[in-house]
Amino acid sequence: MKYIIFNWKSYLNLKESENLSNIISKIKKSKNYKIISAPNNFFHLSLSKKFKANTFAAQNFDLDGRGASTGSLDISHLIENNIKYTLIGHSEMRSNHGENDKIIHKKLELSIENKLIPIVCIGESLKVYKSKKTKNFLNNQIKTIFKKSHMYEDIILAYEPLWSIGTGLTPDLSEINEICKFLSNILKKYSFKKINILYGGSVNLSNVSDILNLQFVDGVLVGSASTNSSFINYFK
Ligand code: PGA
Hints:
Radius of gyration: 17 Å
Largest sheet: 8 strands, parallel
Oligomer: single chain
Bound molecules: 2-phosphoglycolic acid
């Protein structure tokens, strides 16, 4: 079974998010795919009432979001709407909202405490990629985000090279497979009940099947292509 995660970012309005959720809800439950969508956080309240709430992910939540915290989204607000998954550390949260691996570590702990399944995003810049330091960089990210002393339950890790997100560029298939294998090897030093390693960054209709066929890839995290019904219907 492979995870298919749709990150709708802020591309869609409520009506459009409902339309796509409707298409997803009609896709027969399959043994091959588990589809989760991450609509704009603003829409969870409405969507979780109309569709299965446990098929939605939050795009983010705030640390200390409860109380005197104007404009925040607290993790409890997700839980009361029965949201089951949350993205953590997406590159756009890192670049637009100053999120770093230490904050991501705290969010990971909080999501686990609250039984929300985290989809943790990591990935290197073009500079790091070009200087062939990707593995070293990802290893350092993992070390800051995960603790060896902790027993992790169900975790999804998304490898998303920053230079690939929204650019139409992707690493070669062999590189994707090699990095996901590398990640699964380093994660053996940590305790996970279940870990799934996904690839994200410019996944679209023309490359999705090749990526999903890679041995060490447990699924994909898809941004702009997932706002298109023809992409969603691929998983029918
Ligand atoms: P993209 O985005 O598929 O549009 O490149 C992926 C992501 O940001 O998760």
